[in-house]
Amino acid sequence: MRLTWSALGFALGLGFGGLGCVPVSPGTTTDTTSDATGCEPGSLGCVCMEDNSCDEGLICASNECIPGDDPGTSTGSVETTSSTDMTTEPGTGSGTTTTSGSTTEQPACDPANGVSNNPDCETGAYCSSGGECVDCSELAGDDSCAAVDPNTPVCDPSSGTCVECLEGQAAACTGDTPVCDGDAMTCQPCTSNSDCQSGACVLDTGACFPADSVIWVNRLGANCLQATGSNDKPFCEIADAVESVIDTDPRLIRVKPSAMYTKQIDVSSGLTIAIMRESDETDPIVLQVANADSIQVAQNAKVYIEDLSIRGEGPTTAAGVVCNAALLSLTRSEIIDKRGTGAISNDCQLTLEGSRLYNNSGGGIKATSGAVEIVNSIIGNNGSGGAMVSGLTLDGSVEVDILYSTIAFNFAFGPQALACSQGATGSIRNSIVFGSGDQNSVECTSIEFTTSAVDSNDLMGSMNKFFSPGELQLGWFVDVLGGDFHLTGNGPEFNGVAVWSDGDPSVDYDGEARPVVDSSPDFAGADIP
């Protein structure tokens, strides 16, 4: 049915005639004059007066008079922004309400949801206890990075996030991850002694030897007879310092190379020790034990030795080191002139780096089971015509990794450079491996040789350079009989035989730089001339 204009007017009149005071909702525009029901402008619940004022005790909000906070206030206004017209402060993720010219921050996040990774925070990574989204630079007290997560206690101001560590702020890096990687801002294991404040790294775990529990040794120390192991009262012998260690916590023993040490070192089961010279010294520590093995390492012990010269004395066939089901690492050390074998490893993890064994009558190294790693090292002029141990003899399931090393001019009853029984596995790369010149020196088909100088017919190919036994010359090295296996001249016989690969040592036996470019030709053996 179609309504006429008069009928429509009648209907509207009825609609408004039934109203009393007409409250005005936000956004509604209403005439400020009194309507037919007598809702007086300026009174409670009615429209504001023309000057936006209201009766005493009321304030004007969105053209409606409402109770005011101050009973004595009769004029004023309140601007309330709608949901589509709210002012959002950067980083709060929430709107603000402006009342009588003042601004009140609305909670941007719920602390009950956690301080970090709060789903309510769109900007700023953390929700403070006050309910504000902030970055880590605004955290403090109970809201600190350490309180947020003890695993990330340091604030990185550049990203605004909590991290494990920053360069120069590595206090949080402890245990087996004591080193701060400044780029990644994470704690990492130590990989070299220089990573540690103490100057000694437990390489198999990545932890540092503690700097606050060093044991000192000085044979010529004034108070060594009243030794406590302190710097003022050092032990007279390395062996006494080792004997003083009664727990399994890692202990660093610092030795002054002031005189020769003569007492056999016996490392008990389960100990973790490092034997190193004082950091400001340049001479090696000399250990010369008469008629006995110089060092014995018991099962489950871990022993790291640096800059130690182990020398023979006496007619007995004693060894330089004997390791039993333990870990033994020799760095920049030597075993020379022992009447027995230089090193005997029984189910040990034996490592030689930058070290040499020479002129040991019983042979170079004999390993039974376990693992042997030899890097940038020299094994030469060991054994004799009747010796049962060659330069390196492997008995049983020994895993071998030999890199950039020289094993040459050793003497034995059998193969002179390398002999192994079935079960030995591993690789020899970028090395010099040959005998004394009268026979093929390698009898070990289970070890893979590559890019090395060899004198065994079985090793021809695989990018090895082959020399017949009759071609070998003592003159390729400075002094074979004296144990000096540096190459003479420009070492043309071994130049270009090796191939440097990523991850290989960056320096040679003496610390001279290698090419350090992947697939670059290089000198085989321990020395760059």
Describe this structure in words.
The chain is mostly beta strands. The protein has 3 helices and 45 strands. Strand 5 and strand 6 form a beta hairpin. It is elongated.
Keywords:
single chain; 529 residues; mainly beta; ten-stranded parallel β-sheet; nine-stranded parallel β-sheet; 30% strand; disordered N terminus
List the helices and strands and how they pair.
Blueprint: H1 5-17, E1 58-61, E2 64-67, E3 77-78, E4 87-88, E5 95-99, E6 102-105, E7 126-127, E8 133-134, H2 145-148, E9 154-156, E10 161-163, E11 179-181, E12 186-188, E13 201-202, E14 207-208, E15 215-218, H3 238-243, E16 251-256, E17 265-267, E18 272-277, E19 285-290, E20 295-297, E21 302-306, E22 308-313, E23 321-324, E24 327-331, E25 334-336, E26 343-346, E27 349-353, E28 356-358, E29 365-368, E30 371-375, E31 378-380, E32 392-395, E33 399-403, E34 406-408, E35 418-420, E36 425-429, E37 432-433, E38 442-443, E39 447-450, E40 453-454, E41 465-466, E42 477-479, E43 484-487, E44 498-500, E45 520-522
Parallel strand pairs: 1-3, 15-16, 16-18, 17-20, 18-21, 19-22, 20-23, 21-24, 22-25, 23-26, 24-27, 25-28, 26-29, 27-30, 28-31, 29-32, 30-33, 31-34, 32-35, 33-36, 34-37, 35-38, 36-39, 37-40, 40-41
Antiparallel strand pairs: 1-2, 4-5, 5-6, 7-8, 9-10, 11-12, 13-14, 42-43, 44-45
